[in-house]
Amino acid sequence: MAQHSEHPASFWTLASVVPPLIAAGLFAFFLSFLPAVAAGEGLRHAVPWVPSMGVELSFFIDGLSLTFALLISGIGVLVMLFSGSYLAGHPQHARFSLYLVSFMLAMLGLVLADNLLALFVFWELTTITSFLLIGFNHDSKVSQRAALQALLVTGTGGLAMLAGFLMIGSVAGTMELSALRDMGDVLRDSPMYLPILILVLAGAFTKSAQFPFHFWLPNAMAAPTPVSAYLHSATMVKGGVYLLARMHPNLSGTDVWMWTLVIFGAFTTVFASVVALKQNDLKQTLAYTTLMALGALVLYLAAPGGYAITAMATFLVVHSLYKAALFLMIGCVDHATGTRDARRLGGLIRRMPVTGIAGGLAALSMAGMIPFIGFIGKELLYKGGLESPASVVIVTGAIFAASALMFAIAGVVAFKPFWGTDAHMPQLDRPIREAPLPMLAGPVVLGALGLYFGLDSHTLQVAVTDPIAGALLGDMEKGKDLHLWTGVNAALVLSILTFATGVVIYVFHKALRDRIDEAAARLISFDAAWDSFLAGMTRGAVAVTAQLQTGVLSRYLLVVFATITVVIGGTILLRGLDIGSPVLDGISYVHLVVFGLTIAGTLVAVATNSRIAAIAGLGVVGIGVALVFIQFGAPDVAITQILVEMLVVVLFSVAALRLPTLPPARPVSERTLHAAVSIGLGVVVAAVVIGVTSVPLDLNLTEYFEKNSYPIAHGKNIVNVILVDFRAFDTFGEISVVAVAAISAYALLKQRKPKGTS
Amino acid sequence: MNSLILTTATRLIVAILLVFSVFMLLRGHNEPGGGFIGGLIGATGFVMYAIACGTAEARAALRAAPEQIAMVGLGVAALAGLASALFADPLFTGQWLFLGASEGEKGLPLSTVLVFDIGVYLVVMGGILTLVFALEEEI
To answer: Which regions span the lipid bilayer (chain B) (predicted)?
Structure first.
């Protein structure tokens, strides 16, 4: 991103100014809901969307969705201010702003949607905008790969989630979350509970990058810094956490739920903290600490306890504040020095005091120091862990390990670059200066908020944690109080132990880093495994295509016909369907002549070695069919049939001029196979026709058309009235197919090499 | 194909076929016929012309490119379907106007349904001619 600092451009452009204003307006709008929501109200607003299917576009604001909406729009303001300056002068700045605002709106839709289908649509919109933002530097191979990987992983999870939503809808009979909230028992007692849980968890775990789907998130750091700060730490990756929290009243409370979340959450949080320590790129470090936070949030959604949920809600806010601040701080440092390498940065406090202090505030909150909100968050995490119904040892142990590592990493990220030695700093030909004001606003405001909420935790409790407890547990009273000082207790002792361990880890972090590197080299890399998985899919597709699409028309037809024969014939045989016997009444000699003609045409087509004779034989078959239509009083169909037959014969004859005559002696095995498939298909189709005609015909529709064709549609030719009026939309689809088929064939014919070379 | 008889006969027959195709299109709502059949007959006329006199001459006689005719037809059909929105009816609801209608006299029926059928006619004719001309030019 160094090219932007060399060309200082004005912040005052539309692409810079409009996005923060939109976000600020939305933030103020959501803030106006706070008094009602803090009082425990849930507000619902619905507009019809697909009325014929009973789908409404409905929004629901309660403690959970409002907290997310405020985080998304509030952090959105700061991130957009930052990016307005960070990307000023970039040729595609306007495009970036558009993506970022689109993402924000999609994310707001996700957390506010009351209808599960609407939630899914917004969920996928965040996936798509995330794809566009990760791949913003679209000429870089790294960005391309990271964007595609994120899209495939989260998109696949999203589809699984959609299947889960549809099952929820069919079990509960409603897709409105506000109605589902009281139907937890219906879902839990349903035999579909397990499949629903697995599918919904697949969506949540991929979006929130839980192990083993974690690998896409560090790669997503290929995006510009504001994107990492906004999507991949503060908002989008929390979509999965939001979903789990939303589903908490419906799906939680079973052992499967509890243990799945505990195991995945605990493993992710410890694994990510350890890997975070070994990163040299500070952005990568922060990416892994985000994984740690996501793991912790999932871990605390496992249990229904008051402390667990309060801890989850507090930590959600704590993490969003300090992580966005730190990402933006690193953006400022990168902007000024051109590097993010932890091993090189040092001594920046003299050059960038404001950035250093803002980052320091955020880091202190991350480390969980008194009197920051991070301390309260960590205390609550310990209290929640100590009363965990799943396993006190696993939950508390995981949080202890992760918190100690977070303490050390906070030092690496925000202490060392500013207060450490500047011996390894890169030499620059320009002075290192503070970033411009719009870029500084984010770290300063967010860092200060971490301190403010620590001192005034009551505000946070009234505005956020109690309403979230109300939304998840059904009772705001179940939320625990937020206090800086709760006396000497187990949580405080654990906190002190955490600090001690954290200091030790920080002191030895360089040695530890090498050890982790060695250990990591021996483990399998999920990132590499993903590549082999994709390559395997491609190879599989190529192999299947090579088998099925040989380019030989008769092979295609053979496959299609054999499939029809096996599927329909198999169904008839396996189900033991009684197809009845053919109705032979009223057959006259005229019919027999037509049948004879048709059969003769078939025999000619089969026996001849001349293509023209075969086509003419098939033409006779077509005319025979047209005669049948005339016999049974369908002149329109008969006329169409005759005209189509004529054109087909003409077309084939034109094409046949270029083709060699059929080889006189094809292998017996091939001919036997073709004969077997043809006869099988004939038998199956005949069986279906006999079966269909032996069932009494439902004449409802026929009578409706006969009765209404003239009075309503002013036409006496029922076939035509159906085509252009009763079923006009179907016809429109058909003529679209005709047009598209003609143009595709035209394109295929015209792109071939000139005559003689092919 | 170089045949004097075919060329001479074709000039006559093609004209008749084209008039006949429009006749089939227009009478389709009450008698056998309609856009599909009309389009097929019209296409047959130009296919014959192409066989007798060559594709280049058939294209010249057609004036517009067949793929454009198909696209215009698709657009005409879509507009006929959308027109119902002006009258606050669901999509593709037929709208009728009886010109000069009076007591006991039905008048001349005009409708979006006919416009839709004209769209079908153009798509079928244009689509088939796109294919046939391209094929013939390949040979």
So the answer is: 12-29, 35-56, 68-88, 108-135
